[in-house]
Amino acid sequence: MIDGNEVTINGKKEKARKKTSNKWFETQDSISYWDDFNKPKIMWKRIGSILRFCYNDNGALGLDSTCFATGNNIEYICCVLNSTMGHYLLKDSPKTGTGDLLISVQAIDPIRVPYISAKLCDKFKALLAKICNTNSNELYEEIDKEIFLLYKLDSEECEYIINNFS
Fold this sequence. Notes:
Structural class: alpha+beta
């Protein structure tokens, strides 16, 4: 960032677009959310046929083909989005001409996620940590069961979602 001042680059006088307090060149305008990039977040690719949401707490950044979200209870929300129920909730997201899903922030925003207690949030946080270390199918099934309970689904509804959106 040149802060609006003229500088000489390769023998030519250059001037920045405008003076800002930016942290990166890529953000041409001051943004109030730049610190969100350093917070724990959920990251996902915008376009694809398989839905996967990554929990990230190490400050890594994604490319322009990814989205991210921060906020409270982010581990729980990551579990919901990666669950079979999450795939069901995103079934009506926009699609590309080839049928791939377009999962932008606007596709995530309308999803209704049940409010949970701090104790239950801690349980999901622990389950997510275990999955990140072991990637066990049993843990995915346990998360699915917990989330189905939160949505108060009966066994027939659960079976339909499992059979069609796993």
